[in-house]
Every structure is written in C-alpha cells, then in structure tokens.
Amino acid sequence: MDIQKTSKQMAEDIVNAYIQHDKKDYARSALYFAKVFRNLFPKLPEGSIQRAARAYVDALRNHDGIEEGGYSKYDQFNHGKWSHVKDRLLEMCKALGLPDEYAVETTEFFRYHGVGDMQFVTHMLNADRIFTSSILENTNLSLVLGGLYLACVSCHDMHNNYGVSLGKNLISIYYFILLEN
User: Fold this and answer.
1) Domain coverage including residue 148
2) Number of structural domains found in the chain
3) Euclidean distance between the first and final Cα of the chain, in Å?
4) How far is CA 46 from its chain centroid?
5) Measured distance CA(163)–CA(147) in Å, rounded
6) Taking the model in full, what pTM does it have?
7) pLDDT tens digits for 118-144?
C-alpha cells in the first residue's frame, strides 16, 4: 500500500463524506465514511464497515436535528435526543470494535462544541485518544493525532474554502500517521 497516496485519498473521502452529509445526501455520505473506515479497519468484514458508516451518519443526522432545531443554548445542550446520538455512536463502536467510551466522549464533544463551550476540546481529545489507541500499537502518538484532529475541527469551523483546503492537508497527515504505525 502506498501510504501517502492512501492517506490523501482518505482526506478527500472524509471531506466528501461531511460535504454530502451537509447536503443531506446521507447515502453518499455513508459511502465515503465507509471508504475511510475500510482503510482504518482493513480486517473487518464489509458488513461491519457498512453498519458503522450508516450508524455514524445517523448520529450526525440526530446531532444536526438538535443543533438546527432553533433551541436556546441551554435547551440544545440539555436536549433529550442526545441519547439518540450516543445510541447511534454505540452502534458504530460495536461494528468497528471500539470501546463504548468513544461514543460517550464523542457525544459530549458534539454537545459542548454545538453551544460553543471550550469543554468540547477535552471530550474531543478523549474521544480521539480512544479511537486512535484502538487502531495504533504505539499509543504515544495519540496526543500528536489529537492535536491534528483538533486543528481539523477548527478548520471545519471556518466554513470556507481555505478551511476545507487546510483541513484536507492536516487530516491527510493524521491518516498517514495512523496508517504508518
């Protein structure tokens, strides 16, 4: 496998997955997420990859339903449907063999990020550490990867072409490190 080429393709795929999600094309979004998961979890059967991708897209849909519902920050943060987000993420975890704590931390990351509370950073770093530690043998790299992932989230939050381009470059490095180790 050409890791450089694969990591660049994964960067394209993950950005396309989120773009398709934003366009409400959930089937295409799941296809792109599945391509990324396939590279990160090459030993898993295709059915597990597909289930994980669909579950993640469903989690994002539930997340958007809360964030786009016109709620106050308080009501958004305390919305009862965060449990639906967590449930879909738990499905993803089961399909990919990730610890359930990834779903819990990711849900909290989404909740805090959505209301602009910087506590999201702690939960995002915890979620990413759980994710990368499940893939890597060398868990010392989890802090480096978490920093890259945080930078990618910041690029996404720019909501412009520069942010997308910079984010693609950074996530490509992130995937390169994951695939190389």
Assistant:
1) 3-180
2) 1
3) 13
4) 19
5) 16
6) 0.95
7) 999 999 999 999 999 999 977 889 889
